[in-house]
Design brief:
Order of helices and strands: EEEHEEHEHEEHHEH
Helix content: 25-40%
Distance between the termini: 29 Å
CATH class: Alpha Beta
CATH architecture: Alpha-Beta Complex
CATH superfamily: Spore Coat Polysaccharide Biosynthesis Protein SpsA, Chain A
Low-confidence stretches: none
CATH topology: Spore Coat Polysaccharide Biosynthesis Protein SpsA, Chain A
Number of domains: 1
Number of strands: 9
Length: 206
């Protein structure tokens, strides 16, 4: 992306309880799940911020910054969003938005990034989520930095934890993505999901 309006953020701070180990490092094909996300996003953004509470075994690069959650205690992805917003505000770049991507959804449609570029010109909402096949994907989001103060207040004082609940309170618009062959927003929560993803990867490369 040529301008600095949007900061790319990978949310990788979860505990991976259902997976049984840090799924960010789980291999899908020859690379880890988080590397799948990085390699896709890197094509479009100058800088990637990763929110992670565990050590990540990835190549250190100037275009990647890794920081832990601003608030300790694994309180969910909203804390990761707040952490990213604070980092973006304090940076020297002129970020106005953050675009969040999960670390466990390796097949996501990269065209959503182009849609983000167009939607910020329209700017008719401070918050957008991706929707596919009537399902809203709450981690694939475009968040205005104008939401920082209210998000911090709702996290700290009003005890909001679920992204869906907070977004519904704020008001959110959706960006629709259509798919034909398989759901590109399959997220990997379990070892069974990883096996399913391995099969998709084989077909994906054909």
């Amino acid at each position: 992306m040529n301008d600095n309006n949007i900061l790319a953020v990978i949310l990788a701070g979860g505990k991976s309880k259902r997976f049984g180990e840090d799924k960010n490092q789980a291999k899908l094909g020859s690379i880890s799940l988080i590397e799948h996300a990085i390699y896709k996003i890197r094509e479009k953004f100058k800088k990637i911020l990763i929110i992670a509470n565990n050590d990540l075994k990835i190549e250190k690069c100037n275009d990647i910054e890794i920081i832990p959650d601003h608030i300790k205690g694994n309180l969910g992805p909203l804390v990761g969003v707040l952490t990213a917003m604070k980092w973006a505000k304090q940076s020297k770049e002129n970020y106005k938005w953050i675009a969040t991507f999960p670390s466990d959804t390796p097949f996501f449609d990269i065209s959503i990034i182009e849609k983000y570029e167009k939607i910020i010109i329209k700017n008719d909402s401070p918050l957008y989520f991706v929707r596919s096949d009537d399902k809203r994907h709450n981690i694939f989001g475009l968040w205005s930095l104008e939401l920082l103060d209210i998000l911090e207040k709702d996290l700290v004082k009003n005890n909001f934890r679920k992204v869906e609940d907070w977004a519904n309170k704020i008001g959110v618009k959706t960006i629709n993505i259509k798919f034909e062959k398989f759901d590109p927003f399959l997220n990997i929560n379990t070892k069974e999901d990883l096996i399913k993803a391995e099969k998709i990867l084989k077909d994906y490369k054909k």
